[in-house]
Amino acid sequence: MESKTIIHYRYLLPVTLTAALGGLLFGYDTAVISGCIDYMEEFFHLSVAMKGWAASSALVGCIVGALAAGFISDAIGRKRTLLCCSLLFAISAVGSAIPRTLTQLAIARIIGGVAVGAASMTVPMYIAELAPEKIRGRLVSLYQLAVVVGISVVFFVNMLIQRQGGHDWNVVSGWRWMFGSETLPAVLFGVLLLGVPESPRWLMSKNRLVQAQTVLQRIMNRDRAREVEREIQATLQYEKGDFREVFAPEFRPALIIGVCLALFQQFSGINAVMYYAPSIFRAGGADEQSAFMQAVVIGAVNLIFTGVAIWLVDRRGRKALLLIGALVQTAALGGIGILYYYQGPRILLLACILIYVAAFSMALGPVVWIMIAEIFPNKVRGRAMMVATFVLWGSCYVVSQTFPMLIGSPRIGIAKTFWIYSAVSLLTLIFVWRFVPETKGRTLEEIEAGWLKRSLPASQKTTL
User: Fold this and answer.
1) 320-329 pLDDT tens trace
2) What pLDDT score does 357 carry?
3) When comparing pLDDT for 310 and 99, which is higher?
4) For the chain, what is the domain count?
5) CA end-to-end span of the chain, whole Å?
6) Which residue has the higher pLDDT, 121 or 210?
7) Is 84 exposed, middle or buried (CB count within 10 Å of its CB: 0-12, 13-18, 19+)?
8) I need a surface site. Which of 28, 56, 61, 452 has the fewest CB within 10 A?
9) Does 353 reside within a domain?
């Protein structure tokens, strides 16, 4: 009989919030470019293709970071991996503020991207491995909340810096201050990480049982901690833990779902909006000051509806949120395309963009990260998440690199670009409805057992 879970929130919440700061830096680092890109275009005399490279160069680092983090976090632990990320964030912030050439800037941004890619995989995995099952969705959602807090904060910081001087000052110096402002949260993240524990599931995978027991008993009551310990040991006993097991038949459905959700999340166009928000509003007729202000509004809506997701994800479930979000996204993105095509009112354009951001923020934004953090088996979770996160960042690179080209193409243009994103959202709706299971209220070990049960012959399913 399963013991009642008593959660020690005074210990768990500070640890979770500290880890979630990695998400804040993720949002800050990736969205800071939105305020810088037009000034950099003028400063470095960028072509359309090079403007895309300036915006997306960090994503090359994200891909590398996502690939490396799975192996590194399994080898040295989740905590040490995040400490490395904090150092790379700080180096990137300083390096991005002082370049003389686009190449120097790109190198600094790639370093930051490595930190983003590694943190984007390691933080939700770390939180998922700490959190009791009944609040796991909400706690992993704190990571996505931190991401959007970072985006909101940097949109606001960009606006404040942009208003410190005229256009010429911003072209020469303003964008440098925008990049450099990331140094403070990067240092704070590293300092706070020194006080958090290692993941108990990682500790048990390394046979450090006493340390794992200590962490589990700080998170929950002793009886339930012992039950969770036995569940983890039971799964570790039959897992090989090498990279090939990620592609084993019994876990292949989980991998396909994780990869497809990562693809759909990015090809719905969210980072085209986040990276190019002022440019998008200028294309709709807004002036420079209004474009920055409207970007701040996007950040606020993003933050509010991520809070809605945290409130709903463990009440209504992952699948319901994904279905509603994908449906609203499809309509909102289609509306954005129509308004650009017919040059509709700017207020309606802003409304449709905000509806799209709200739908994404309460569904595909947080829920995809939750699911790829919880659907894989314990011992290979790092490497399985690496595959899904690699696909996610590769897709993000494609979107951010091609967006300036698509909207500048006489055959496609900005209206058809958003219609493409709308079509992807419709495909997302169909995929989630047909293939994505509900994971609400299930332990990581129960989710893993579900995949194993699906792969067994019918005569053996009742024994698992």
Assistant:
1) 999 999 999 9
2) 92
3) 99
4) 1
5) 17
6) 210
7) buried
8) 452
9) yes
449 vs 429: CA distance, rounded Å: 26
Q: What's the pTM?
A: 0.73
Residue 460 in this model has a pLDDT that exceeds 50: no
Distance CA 246, CA 244 (A): 5
How large is the average pLDDT for residues 330-357? 92
The confidence band for 226, taking pLDDT boundaries of 50, 70 and 90, is confident
Q: Are 119 and 23 in contact (CB under 8 A)?
A: yes
306 phi, psi to nearest 5 deg: -70, -35
Residue 5 in 3-state DSSP?
coil
Q: Is 402 left (phi over 0), alpha (psi -120 to 50) or beta?
A: alpha
Smallest Cα–Cα separation from 135: which of 441, 453, 457?
A: 441
pLDDT in tens, 109-133: 999 999 998 998 899 889 888 888 7
Coil, strand, or helix at residue 248?
coil
Q: Taking Cα atoms as reference points, which of 114, 128, 112, 108 lies closest to residue 20?
A: 128
User: Within 10 A of 195 (CB to CB), how many other CB atoms are there?
Assistant: 9
- Is 420's pLDDT higher than 90? yes
Residue 413 lies in a domain: yes
Distance CA 121, CA 116 (A): 9
Q: What angle do CA 315, 119, 85 make, to 5 degrees?
A: 150
Asked whether 10 and 73 are in contact (CB, 8 A), the reply is no
CATH number at residue 350: 1.20.1250.20
The pLDDT > 70 percentage for the chain reads 93
Residue 251 belongs to domain spanning: 10-463
Q: What secondary structure does DSSP assign to 13-55, as a single string?
A: HHHHHHHHHHHHHHHHHHHTHHHHHHHHHHHHT--HHHHHHHH
Confirm whether 219 is domain-assigned.
Answer: yes
With respect to residue 20, please indicate whether it lies within any of the assigned structural domains: yes
Residue 343 burial (CB < 10 Å; 0-12/13-18/19+)?
Answer: exposed
User: Nearest-CA neighbor of 98 among 180, 42, 43?
Assistant: 180
At residue 166, what are phi and psi to the nearest 5 degrees?
-80, -175
**pLDDT tens, position by position, 148-195:** 889 889 988 998 998 898 899 999 999 999 999 999 999 999 999 999
- Name residue, tokens 């700490």: 130
**CA 247 to CA 237: how far, in whole Å?**
19
